[in-house]
């Protein structure tokens, strides 16, 4: 009797995987971090906000207020406008060295006239005539524009006009210089180069200044003449001045009583200035101070009226 061995038992089946942890399905379905196409290329400063995860925005404005398409459009717009690059520069933890274009080499200005004169022209003339070109300035001078050619401007032009030597150097430069050199000429020199083309420039400005100040000078001259006449009349008719002169004559004759200068019937008016040169023995006062003190103490009537009679003398002396 033939007997066979029984077949081996089948291998045990693989065990079932363990059940997922609670909430694991939801976490896998939602990305833990929003994906952005643009990231800073440098380390930037942090915005200290309170972050919400994806599973916490279900009914908030962050979920309901926008869509993925709009977010992509906004991100593309910010990138196109250079906002992200600008933020890298502004909010980088380390200052990002901005790429600046290499400055073009600037030609040195060419100056011919005196540096001090050039400075005065810039301040006194060019600074007040910024709104017009040099050619227009020249036209106004030639046209004798009274509104433009004021007394102050004409005086500044006359005082700061280029000398004959400077005019000669400018003329030679204008004839021989290249276009680049002409463009490099400093503003005061370029201004002088324009005005020296006016025939008899200094003589013209002098005559224009005379015309501009003529009426004012005539008016002032009339006032000065009136002041001199009024002051002379007051001095001539002042009783206080006569009494003061008599006092000075008397004390002078007293001091000179023993010498040739004494016994004078009168003195030149200019001799009154010598009172301050006659000093006391103690050298601490002068005859002028002595006379003033005496008038104040002993002759109050002269003291009161003398200053009133001399009021116009100050204006007449100018």
Number of DSSP-assigned strands: 0
**Fold-level CATH name of the domain at 115-212:** Methane Monooxygenase Hydroxylase, Chain G, domain 1
Uncertain parts: 23-30
Bin the strand percentage: under 5%
What is the 3D shape? elongated
Q: Mean of the pLDDT scores?
A: 76
Q: What CATH architecture of the domain at 115-212 do you see?
A: Up-down Bundle
Biggest beta sheet attributes: none
By CATH reckoning, the class of the domain at 115-212 would read Mainly Alpha
Instruction: Please estimate the helix content.
Output: 40-55%
Q: Write down the Rg.
A: 50 Å
Number of helices: 15
| Helix-strand sequence | HHHHHHHHHHHHHHH
What is the subunit organization of this protein? single chain
Distance between the termini: 166 Å
Structural class: mainly alpha
Indicate the topology:
Layout: H1 24-29, H2 61-64, H3 68-80, H4 83-90, H5 115-124, H6 134-142, H7 151-159, H8 164-176, H9 179-183, H10 187-195, H11 201-237, H12 239-255, H13 287-298, H14 300-309, H15 311-316
Helix pairs in contact: 6-10, 7-11, 12-14
Give a short overview.
It is built from 15 helices and no strands. With 318 residues, it is an all-alpha fold. Among the domains are: 115-212, Methane Monooxygenase Hydroxylase, Chain G, domain 1 (Up-down Bundle), CATH 1.20.58; 239-317, no CATH class.
What would you say this structure looks like, in words?
It is a single chain. With 318 residues, the chain is mainly alpha-helical. Among the domains are: 115-212, Methane Monooxygenase Hydroxylase, Chain G, domain 1 (Up-down Bundle); 239-317, no CATH class. It contains 15 helices and no strands. The protein has helices spanning 24-29, 61-64, 68-80, 83-90, 115-124, 134-142, 151-159, 164-176, 179-183, 187-195, 201-237, 239-255, 287-298, 300-309, 311-316. It starts with 23 loop residues before the first helix and ends with a helix. The model is unreliable at 23-30 (pLDDT under 50).
């Amino acid at each position: 009797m033939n007997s066979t061995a029984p077949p081996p038992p089948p291998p045990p089946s693989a065990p079932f995987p363990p059940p997922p942890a609670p909430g694991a399905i939801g976490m896998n379905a939602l990305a833990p971090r929003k994906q952005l196409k643009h990231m800073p290329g440098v380390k930037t400063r942090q915005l200290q906000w309170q972050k919400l995860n994806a599973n916490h925005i279900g009914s908030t404005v962050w979920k309901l207020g926008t869509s993925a398409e709009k977010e992509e459009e906004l991100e593309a717009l910010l990138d196109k406008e250079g906002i992200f690059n600008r933020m890298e520069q502004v909010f980088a933890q380390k200052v990002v060295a901005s790429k600046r274009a290499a400055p073009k080499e600037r030609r040195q200005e060419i100056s011919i006239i005196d540096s001090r004169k050039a400075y005065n022209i810039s301040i006194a003339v060019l600074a007040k005539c910024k709104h017009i070109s040099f050619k227009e300035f020249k036209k106004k001078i030639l046209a004798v524009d009274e509104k433009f050619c004021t007394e102050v401007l004409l005086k500044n032009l006359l005082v700061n006009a280029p000398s004959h030597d400077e005019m000669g150097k400018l003329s030679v430069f204008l004839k021989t210089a290249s276009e680049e050199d002409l463009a490099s000429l400093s503003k005061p020199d370029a201004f002088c180069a324009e005005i020296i083309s006016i025939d008899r420039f200094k003589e013209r400005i002098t005559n224009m200044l005379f015309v501009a100040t003529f009426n004012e000078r005539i008016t002032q001259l009339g006032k000065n003449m009136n002041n001199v006449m009024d002051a002379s009349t007051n001095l001539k008719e002042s009783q206080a001045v006569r009494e003061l002169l008599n006092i000075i004559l008397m004390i002078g004759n007293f001091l000179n009583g023993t010498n040739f200068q004494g016994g004078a019937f009168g003195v030149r008016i200019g001799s009154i200035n010598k009172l301050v040169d006659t000093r006391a023995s103690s050298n601490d006062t002068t005859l002028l101070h002595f006379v003033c003190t005496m008038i104040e103490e002993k002759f109050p009537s002269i003291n009161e009226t003398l200053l009133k009679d001399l009021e116009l003398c100050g204006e007449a002396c100018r």
